Amino acid sequence: MTVPKADDPTGLPVSAPNIVASPAGRSMIRVRGMTRVYRMGDATVHALSGVDLDIEAGEYVSITGQSGSGKSTFMHLLGCLDRPTAGTYELNGQLVTRMTDAEQARIRNKNIGFVFQTFNLINRTKAIDNVAIPLIYARERRTRDRAMKALEIVGLKHRWNHKPSEISGGERQRVAIARAIVNEPSIVLADEPTGNLDSRTGEQILDIFDRLNAAGTTIILVTHEMSVAARARRLIHMADGRIDADAPVTDALRTELLQSAVLGAAHFEGHVLTSSAAGIKNKKN
Ligand code: ADP
Ligand code: MG
Predict the structure, then answer these.
(1) What is the pLDDT of residue 277?
(2) pLDDT score at 52
(3) Which protein residues have their CB within 5 A of the ion that is ligand 2?
(4) Distances (CA, A) of 192 to 64, 66, 94, 202, 204
(5) How confident is the model at residue 282 (pLDDT cuts 50, 70, 90)?
(6) Domains of the chain from N-terminus onward
(7) Is 66:266 a contact under the CB 8 Å cutoff?
(8) d(CA 232, ligand 2 centre) in Å
(9) Which ligand has an atom closest to residue 68 CA?
(10) What pLDDT does 26 receive?
């Protein structure tokens, strides 16, 4: 099934993702008491300290917070790249935390696409072969056709034959997004996807996320840039391994976020926790 979009800059339909219905009354993502403690010799780091969170299919959520607040740790856990020290994670009603590594890998491959700040492409491999990697892991057929289609969605079909070193940073990230969506996952997790790009190139990346979200893909995006966070429809703020604010991005909040992007994040850090006008709810736990 495809969903044509009028404001699609490439003029191409985006494929609808592999959305699996959750059991009635259950969120697509359901996290309870999620905790991650890193042990390094005698030292322990409490990177995540009891996070509760529900995310529905089709949401566009941004996660902000200072460096070291646990954002990447949380993304790795949501992406089944890591296991929590304590707590539970249900995805589409399935208890991921109980699964074997092989079962988690299957869930990840089918449901989740990852986009990283540093693109994480294989340098000596052409764009089309980078994009096809998840299909090859999943032992899918027609891998080149499907990789080409994913490149087309991000507007890079004409670069299929280029290696990462032969294209710009923005184009590399678009190849990485094509790789993330080639399996038509229901969720795309992006950790600082515009962090290495200038703002205009970053906009192009965010436009692709908008289109994917409009076609039904759930987007969870980590960023420390308020102008990027403002693109989402829900904003989560983390501090010291906890969620300390969670609010819909209303027009009023979007305006505040864009102002704080100019004034600096420190302004926002104070504001998001105190502003009642913007409808921010502080979490009790
Ligand atoms: P953020 O993405 O918000 O900057 P992280 O999730 O990367 O935060 O890190 C949270 C905390 O956990 C930090 O104190 C960081 O140093 C620590 N940390 C992250 N990854 C590891 C790791 N693999 N081993 C040990 N400590 C880690
Ligand atoms: Mg991080």
Answers:
(1) 31
(2) 98
(3) 72
(4) 10, 12, 28, 10, 14
(5) very low
(6) 2-26+58-72+111-274 (3.40.50.300)
(7) no
(8) 18
(9) 1
(10) 82
Q: Phi and psi of 175, rounded to 5°?
A: -65, -40
C-alpha 69 to ligand 1 mean position (Å): 8
Q: Which residue has the tokens 């795309």?
A: 188
Q: What is the pLDDT of residue 152?
A: 96
Ligand 1 pocket check: which of 36, 38, 221 to mutate, most ligand atoms within 8 Å of Cβ? 38
Q: Residue 82: pLDDT above 90? A: yes
- Of residues 73, 90, 92, the one with CA closest to residue 82: 73
Residue 213 has pLDDT above 50, yes or no: yes
Beta carbon of 237 within 6 Å of any ligand 1 atom: no
34 by Cβ neighbours in 10 Å (0-12 / 13-18 / 19+) ranks as buried
72 lines ligand 1 (CB under 6 A): yes
CA distance 39 to 223: 26
Q: Is the CB of 68 under 6 A from ligand 1?
A: yes
Question: What is the pLDDT at residue 264?
Answer: 59
Tokens of 283: 């979490």
CA distance 266 to 261: 10
141: left (phi over 0), alpha (psi -120 to 50) or beta: beta
38 lines ligand 1 (CB under 6 A): yes
User: For the whole model, what pTM was predicted?
Assistant: 0.88
Helix (H, G, I), strand (E, B) or coil at 147: helix
